[in-house]
Amino acid sequence: MNKFFFSKLALRNLKSNKQIYFPYIFASIATVAMFYMMVALRGNKFIQTRSDTLSLLFALGAIVVGVFSFIFILYTNSFLIKRRKKEIGLYAILGMKKSHVSKILTIESMVTSCFSIVVGVVVGHLLGELAFLVLNYALKFGIEMSFPFTIQAMLVTIGLFALIFLTTLGYNITQVTFSNPIQLIKGKQTGEREPKSSLILFILSLLLIGSGYWMSLTIDNPLDAMIYFFLAVLLVIAGTYFLFISGSIFILKKLKKNKPFYYRPSPFISISGMLYRMKQNAVGLANITILATMVIVAVSTTAAIFIGTEDTLTVRLPYENQRTYYETVDLEEQLEAIEKETETNGLNVTGTEMYVYYNLFSIIEDNKIMIGAADFAKEIPDTIQLLIREDYERIVGETVPLSSDEVLLFDSKNTFGFSTVIIGNTTYQVKSKIDNPLKMDKSQSPNMIMIVDSRETLESIMETDFRLREIDLPIVADAVISWNTNGTQAQKKDYSEKTAAVVSDSGNSYFQSRELLREEWYSMNGGFLFLGIFLGLLFTFGAALITYFKQVSEGYDDRDKFQIMQKVGLDKQMIRKTTRLQIVWMFLLPLIIAVTHVTFAFPIIQKLLLLFSVVNTALVFWCFIGVITGFSVIYWLIYQVTSKVYYVIVE
Asked: Cα separation of 86 and 184, whole Å?
């Protein structure tokens, strides 16, 4: 046998099956390019020098893209090998050994994988240059950035996708090795047996999805939301698969039992067709649903974070400037010094807030603050912030009489219903509940704020805290002075830079400014937006290709069946009507369930966004509405294109 025989045959096979191989190769190139870009961005020197957070974001993004690429290519390859089974079975009948068929598949895999990897890396680098232009705009940098070619990113990309393509090759060879020629020839014509509906599995799917929804609706604390969010996601994903596999079959069989409805041409063909292959369709539909949900969540949340950057800065720093002292200071004296320094820079102080505080980190049990009981390595303690009455009166602008055994109490969770609070061996009467007197980020708000009568009472509680926790350090309360100034943004930035330089030399305090944080926050939030859009495009692309391969596979499966229907008297108009009904339902179900998932996920996502100081619920809501609308339009375009492919194959 000519040594080039198998190579020529493999190349001819690729050419003759171009309708299914070209989309597969295109999908492979796209995933290689996306992964290369993400890895290259993660190791880019400019990104690393700008923000550690950005580097971490792209590292996480590379992991997500890598996992998605593995699943996606295996999924699309399964459609491809299904279309090739008859051809492979024919080789065996004509006398070709399984080892020869495996050799042909190996050559085909080497050609497609090597071409995909090489072209994908080149395309990824070219797109990376373009991506940096977008990144530069998103991060509001007005300076030149470079996207150099990196050997490390290339080697990581080659290694990952070599493993993925070897896995697909192993799967394809297994299909040949463990199947006889007759099974292979009939493989693509063998439909799924009518699946049995499982009421238990259907109920399990509802319980899993319901549990995820319940977590989203009942969790109030942003930290708890962060802990349980991924558990809720896993429950909903598992429930989605079970719902499509079992729930769809359960509903279709119920419709089938409705004889007046079922025994009509359109429902008869549509329902029986969907039921016959629902097990295969269900997996594809579940994948599309999950990808659609990921697109909406990823793009909506990152858009809300970026658009709300200015609001975030205001929430993080209610006043333009804030100086925190780590030693005992005279607040009036420090404020006077700040005002003089501000006037020296040609500006004036226009608003202030100042107070002394001490944070107790402990566990609250009933009305007792259990100092020393919390194991910080295993649990998140409650934060109780102590303020002095005179500072509270200055902030709220009113006089509040308070004795040494009384406190005013702000409870952020509004769950403390006791009339007394015990700290150590001392019992304090809760004179009244108050609103939060401080302008602060809600995500950083303490569990409680307690107003005590004097500096002496505050220091007594501090001494109790140090003694019970066995801390041998000087007992010092912290102090905060926050202030605004007049002037232009450029003047304020110059003033902040000079103040930061002075404070850094003092060593006894810490200075924060909106103007100094603005570039860093736009940098970080722009990275979130870029990553969200990038992953959104990736998942949209994945949903489109899964839909395409599903339509092509179903089109070939349905073609012979509909030709038989035409021979027994059904006209093309009726056949097209029934197929359109089936396709529309197949497209609408993932979108409807994805939007339902997002609707119930909104509360927990909103809590998570509080950790990023995004407190504007209306902004988050409209970001979700906008992304859902945009994705629906894109999804409709996918429907228009892929349904035409289906009709062309069937007719």
From this structure: 5
